[in-house]
Amino acid sequence: MRKILKAVLIGMSMRKKGFKKIVLLFMCTLVVSPLYAGIGTDKDERLRKYETKAIQWMENSEQKEVKNIEKFKKDSKCNIVLNGEDITSTVSEDLMPINASGINYVPLRMLESVIKGIELDYDSKTKIVKARAENSWIMLQIGKNLSCYCVFDEKSVKLYDYTFTTDGPAMANGKVYLPLRYAIEKLGYKVIWDGKTSTLSISTTDKEPTIPEGLIKPVENKESNKSYYLGGVAIKIPANFIMVDLGNGDVTRDRNKIVGLTVQCSTNKEFKPTSVRENGYGYAGSLEVYKTFGDPNANLENLDTQLKDLENILNQLGSKEEVSKIMQKVKADFKISTDTEQENMKLGDFLVEVGGYRNMAIRESLIMYKKVNTTITSGNKDGAIYYLGGKPFKLPEGLAVTTSPANENGVSYATSGDDCKTLHFRGTATPNLVKTAFRRAFAGGLTICSGKGFVDVNTQYKLAEQILNQILEEKEVDQVMAHAKKFMTSNSELSTDFIYGDLEVTVSNSHNDNDKVMITFNKIVD
Known about the structure:
The protein is α+β, with helices and mostly antiparallel strands and 526 residues long. It folds into three domains: 32-76 and 88-192, Copper Amine Oxidase, Chain A, domain 1; 228-371, no CATH class; 375-524, no CATH class. The chain has nine helices and 35 strands. The strands form seven sheets. Strands 25, 28, 29, 30, 31, 32, 33, 34 and 35 form a nine-stranded antiparallel sheet that branches. It has a seven-stranded antiparallel sheet with strand order 18-19-20-21-24-23-22, covered by helices on one side. Strands 1-11-10-9-8-7 form a six-stranded antiparallel sheet, with helices on both faces. Strand 12 (170-172) and strand 13 form a beta hairpin.
């Protein structure tokens, strides 16, 4: 070695350019060469030998103060991309990177969680950390300024050292954090950090790391510890969701911050639906995914991120098979340029109405319904009283209705059910009004259907008259029923309104699935 150094010094003093180039090239080779390198077939033996050397070097190296970066955690929201795919929603909050004074740190356990094939080993007694990938490992000791990394293949094993300056290992909440670039690159991977979108992108392949189009900078949700419920089932929503209060415990995601997966749910654990469908399912909330939005200046979230967040929420409510079918429907709908057909799909205790809409935005809507405890009454059993137009009546023989428990507004709904083959009734089992809008409170209705499988239409007319006679004057009943019979036989779509005191009664028809006439009641309110 002395002879080599002497030759270098002599060469530096010589003026011949050719020799200078050779000397400089030789010196550069010395700088980037490993401290130890072995060639042969017994790779495992050399790896064990170099691990022992690495431990000796670190134990003899300079002591270094361990940073505590815990205070920076709250301001360190970011996206995580692996091989071009946004995986942020799959990484738990406690494994997110931390940016401290301009240096990005990653939790040791995050490497193992995010990158398949990485093995971790931590000796709490010696405070030595080792992370091993397929063809490399890194080793460091908490509180020391020296670390080692080893690169190997079937033919050779090379050991390098690395001295930390300002970017050594750190601690936060009792967890070990490593400098981002050191940890990823020394294990043989590629990494970039995009400050504009706060995105950490890692590539474990030959391709360069990329930032997916549409990624946005995460927004901190200061109320992320709140509990949220869909149909009384607790759900976890992404930590960056900002929720706004809609009143009565209902909340939804704030689209003024980010337009993305919208969740409308409740902060109330007890499920009290504000409306119940004819089949006994009550409204439990909704989920919406946006591919485009009407406002071009909106902060639109990446579609893949939204779909992953959606799938994570659905997985909390039903089986993998059910979730898979719903996700297939959602993704297929986004390939269609027009509104898509709504489909009722099973998800655990829920019935999910899935459909795509294209008005002002390309979005997929999932309306959540959950079965409520109901009471079925057939005919005038026990003198039960129901309400239509806010007025009481007794149920005629030949009809059966399902009654839901009273919701938080004191309203108990009563319906005949989707499988009803005779006069269909929708109203309440309480005098409370259902919903107020434009000085009108929806107060129920009757539907008469004509066609194969339904009870004779004349029988349905008589049942309707028995109910109407209990809440309207005789001449009013005659007027309503005359129009109902006329509209049933008409080929045109017709509708007319009548005002009877504080009631607005609308008679209309439809010929879509079958011939039917609807008699709808709204109460006029101040």
